[in-house]
Amino acid sequence: MKALLAAAAVSVAVLAIQAYAEDAPCENMLENLRTQLKDAKLSEADAAKVKELEDKGIERCTADDDAHADAYFAEALKIIVK
């Protein structure tokens, strides 16, 4: 039950982050991703996928393509919180 409640809370947080990301620089979304990643316990495959998405997001963020950067960061967050 605790795991289910935690997963629900994280899902709500991800949705809030996505809504916030629409109005905030991608650097904020990246900071949030890294904060979530600190406590995450991921499989090797999930960790690799998150790293790949983070790298793609950073590339887009550096190119001032915040919308696509945030999409990559949001996808990575979904992996972290599953």
Question: Helices and strands in order, then pairings?
Answer:
Elements: H1 2-21, H2 26-38, H3 44-62, H4 66-81
Account of the protein in words:
The chain is mainly α and 82 residues long. It has one domain (2-81). The chain is built from four helices and no strands. Helix 2 runs antiparallel to helix 3 and helix 3 (44-62) runs antiparallel to helix 4. The two termini are 15 Å apart. The model has no long low-confidence stretch (mean pLDDT 84).
Q: Could you give a short description of this structure?
A:
Helix content is about 85%, strand content about 0%. It has about 80 residues and is mainly alpha-helical.
Number of strands: 0
Counted up, domains total: 1
- Strand fraction: under 5%
Residue share in helix: over 70%
Approximate shape = globular
**H/E element sequence:** HHHH
Count the DSSP helices: 4
Sequence stretches where pLDDT stays below 50 over 5 or more residues: none
